[in-house]
From TrEMBL, chains A, B:
Its cofactor is Mn(2+); Mg(2+). GO terms for molecular function: magnesium ion binding; NAD binding; oxidoreductase activity, acting on the CH-OH group of donors, NAD or NADP as acceptor. Residues 4-345 form the Isopropylmalate dehydrogenase-like domain. The keyword NAD applies. This is 3-isopropylmalate dehydrogenase. It comes from the Bacteria.
Length: 352, 352
């Protein structure tokens, strides 16, 4: 079996953690007997500053030709904030129709969490974030800029097309997990969008009679997630609320070091992309201080997506085991470099 | 000195915690030598169900005639979600021009927090939430409802008028605290609104040269708030982000039991309102299981607003002392009823 993978290391610590993940991928290939063809795709701050290109059409076409994209991190203090995020990350999500941002929030055994008394059994949920619209349509308008009459209107656009598919995906996922799906929204204030999401929960839910449904306001979610994570199995939410609650989820599961995500095209019309949820962390780039676990857990998600289920499980277990031994999630106190940690994870994968 | 107060106990546990707070107010009056005239205002689910009225104009006029409003909680399972919230709470905020929602996030000595290792010195911030607009304009539109073409658009309207006044208020507050103001937004995605908020930070900031400013994305804020609360002194944010991060703040400071808020009219054009941030909790109503500390801390904020600074400090200290002795923040395990706890807080205030 062979899979073609586009590797998009990006900026800052992106290339470091991606290199570590690729060493782990080598080990997984050896052990589980598959191969990959890898194409390096140079996107990010350096590419933008030297060429003026953010996401050229030709690159999008090239990415389309691959089975998956392994993404490092993008962002740099040398570029005005927002340019790279919107021009590359959000553009990729939209152009590749990566309808779902999938964020497992799982506390691995031995990984320190800042939540007092929290145990791994109590924290195992998946957040399904709609990934293409809502407040992220990035439209909006300003009138009377610079005067005391300035008004900025920002729109959130919510379509049945995208909401129904996100909710259906979430129900499907819940039906093979603990069979509970929670909608997280703010229906008491965002009434029109709320009606659309609620309708999707009801209509799609009729197709999944064995999945129990539940609702929580996003503000209440931020109260429950840290202290009652066991309340959640699968959570479905919109793009903006998803952005917020998944980062809170990362705190609960022990920090950015262990948080991974998949940007999934579920229609076969584009390529799915897997990324650690940490950023490019320019302050620690080049020092070998970045924890590669997030990248390796993203690799695990990618392997699952490619149908390499055994390899996915082995990589996840190895990454979790190595993180559990670290005194710190990143930085000099980690006690080993990014590369060494990648090697340790790779060794565990290779040795089974 | 006398102050006229409108008392709006509301639904569920609202009347219980409000009664406890009023006993504490009695004690504060005795000790500090001021009086209050109190008018009970019947708003909430019962009033709505029996009269069909949410917030009659006459009630708004009556509230206007008072120096402050002491609010319990509103909400009932007998009313469709959203009706009371929008029809009373949000309507009051808007009609009374309560421009600011002020939420101190302070960990009191001895109050258990779910954040491992967090100490009171590290957690003392105030969140200033814009309280009248943004996504809370509650407008929006739906086309093609009930079909596969349904689209819901939700608008967030942001005006210089309201953003500038919120930012100015926040700077003023920061200048009498630790002189640090953080803007919490999502400027990399909500570009137009982000420009307005950023402009306000810059222009208003020029008037407060001794206040250091800082920026954090709302998703990153949810990572930092639990584990690095010392990073924040005053935080200013929009209505929707404020709704979310203040609830997370409540978790960090030990839960809803100890979280209070003020809805402030800062122009003298309406009456300010003080409310615990817990809801009406219909599941425990009538049992005496509600913790009155949130209501008492709201009373303390109200007293500060009325110029009764000494009384405010005494009530805050007494409420914090009593909460620190409780094994649980609400429920049967609290070991004392709402009324008894109110009496204990009142006694501490009376005895000094
Ligand atoms: C970089 C940014 C645009 C992005 C988002 O807001 O979606 C990030 O926070 C994420 O969650 O992947
Ligand atoms: C009840 C609800 C409308 C309200 C809000 O969203 O503002 C509440 O959550 C709050 O924070 O006071």
């Amino acid at each position: 079996r062979t899979h073609s993978i586009a590797v998009l290391p990006g900026d800052g610590i992106g290339p470091e953690v991606t290199a570590a993940a690729l060493a782990v991928l080598d080990a997984a290939q050896e052990r589980f007997g598959f191969t990959t063809e890898r194409t390096d795709v140079p996107l990010g701050a350096d590419h933008y500053l030297s060429t003026g290109e953010l996401l050229p059409d030709a690159t999008v076409e090239e990415l389309r030709g691959h089975d998956a994209i392994l993404f490092g991190a993008i962002g740099s203090p040398t570029v005005t904030p927002g340019i790279l995020e919107r021009g590359i990350i959000l553009a990729l999500r939209r152009q590749m129709e990566q309808a779902i941002n999938l964020r497992p929030v799982r506390l691995y055994d031995g990984v320190p969490t800042p939540i007092a008394g929290l145990t791994p059994e109590r924290c195992d949920m998946v957040i399904v974030r709609e990934n293409t619209e809502g407040a992220y349509v990035a439209q909006g308008s300003t009138v009377h800029a610079g005067t005391s009459a300035q008004v900025a209107v920002q729109e959130s656009v919510n379509t049945w097309y995208a909401v129904e598919r996100a909710v259906d995906f979430a129900f499907r996922l819940a039906s093979v997990r603990r069979k509970k799906l929670t909608l997280c929204h703010k229906t008491n204030v965002l009434v029109e969008a709320g009606k659309l999401w609620t309708r999707a929960m009801e209509e799609v839910g009729a197709r999944y009679p064995d999945v129990e449904t539940d609702y929580v306001h996003v503000d209440a979610m931020c109260m429950h997630l840290p202290v009652n994570p066991e309340r959640f199995d699968v959570v479905v939410t919109d793009n903006l609320f998803g952005d917020i609650v998944t980062d809170l989820g990362a705190v609960v599961q022990g920090g950015l070091g262990v948080a991974a995500s998949g940007n999934l095209n579920i229609a076969g019309t584009g390529t799915s992309m897997f990324e650690p949820i940490h950023g490019s962390a320019p302050d620690i780039a080049g020092r070998g201080w970045a924890n590669p676990a997030g990248a390796c857990l993203s690799l695990s998600m990618m392997l699952g997506h490619l149908g390499e289920g055994e390899a996915a499980a082995a990589v996840e277990a190895a990454a979790a085991a190595v993180v559990a031994q670290l005194p710190a999630l990143a930085g000099a106190e980690m006690g080993a470099t990014t590369e060494e940690l990648g090697r340790r994870i790779a060794d565990l994968v290779r040795d089974g």
